[in-house]
Amino acid sequence: MQDPSPFASTPEPPYYAVIFSSTRRDADPGYAAMAARMVELASAQPGFLGVESSRDADGFGITVSYWVSLAAIAAWKSNVEHLAAQQAGRQSWYGHYALRIARVERAYAFDASGDATA
Amino acid sequence: MQDPSPFASTPEPPYYAVIFSSTRRDADPGYAAMAARMVELASAQPGFLGVESSRDADGFGITVSYWVSLAAIAAWKSNVEHLAAQQAGRQSWYGHYALRIARVERAYAFDASGDATA
């Protein structure tokens, strides 16, 4: 079951973001299961704050995960099951990807129901 | 005509990212033209480095634009035509959005053709 909101609930900055942009290679039925498992696994990592993800009809996707610290990101990067998924991603799933680690300094939100917060 | 690559060509960090996550309200034929115009306008701003954007079949999208500095982001935010689009976005286009400004500190890329760079 998917989370009903695609937005991550993050605290006041500062915190960190991992911006992962990618194109898929040929459709692989194992990919969706792996991606769901990685979200499950990341969510259980210390320092995980949330994740947002979108992939368009052309196969270009952006996933942004949010973390309390660079140390939390480093620990997630070296998680054994995640390492195996990273290798499979390079071998089979991704045509190209870019990964950027960034420190979130300011955040704003808007909701059409009338709730705008800075 | 669209750029053939959905990836932004960014320099070595540090630089800045504006992470814009949003859900659309009802389909509006004016939206696509506005979005394309904003990319065109942003690309002409001083300090613009590139943009990556994805919107999925459920209407959840992530756009990340890259900039040389916070000052360049502030100038873009206050661009008159962009201000009008921001207002239209809140009035008509977006159900909810989150906007985060982050300083990119590290970046990696991978290409299945064999080119992996850190």
How does this model look, in words?
The structure is a homodimer of 118-residue chains. Chain A has one domain (19-106): Alpha-Beta Plaits (2-Layer Sandwich), CATH 3.30.70.100. Chain A is built from three helices and five strands. The first copy, chain A, has helices spanning 29-43, 70-77, 80-93, and strands at residues 15-24, 48-55, 60-67, 94-111, 116-117. Chain A has a five-stranded antiparallel β-sheet. Chain A is globular and about 40 Å long. The model of chain A has no long low-confidence stretch (mean pLDDT 92). Chain A binds chain B through residues 6-8, 10, 13, 17, 19, 21, 23, 25, 52-58, 60-62, 64, 90, 94-112, 116, and chain B through 6-8, 10, 13, 17, 19, 21, 23, 25, 52-58, 60-62, 64, 90, 94-112, 116.
Average pLDDT level of chain A:
92
Helix tally of chain A equals: 3
Oligomer: homodimer
Q: What is the highest CATH level, the class of chain A?
A: Alpha Beta
Assign the CATH topology of chain A: Alpha-Beta Plaits
**CATH-derived architecture of chain A:** 2-Layer Sandwich
SSE order of chain A in H/E notation?
A: EHEEHHEE
Task: Give a quick set of tags describing it.
3 helices; about 30% helix; globular; five-stranded antiparallel beta sheet; alpha+beta; about 120 residues; Alpha-Beta Plaits; homodimer
Describe the structure concisely.
Chain A has three helices and five strands, in the order E-H-E-E-H-H-E-E.
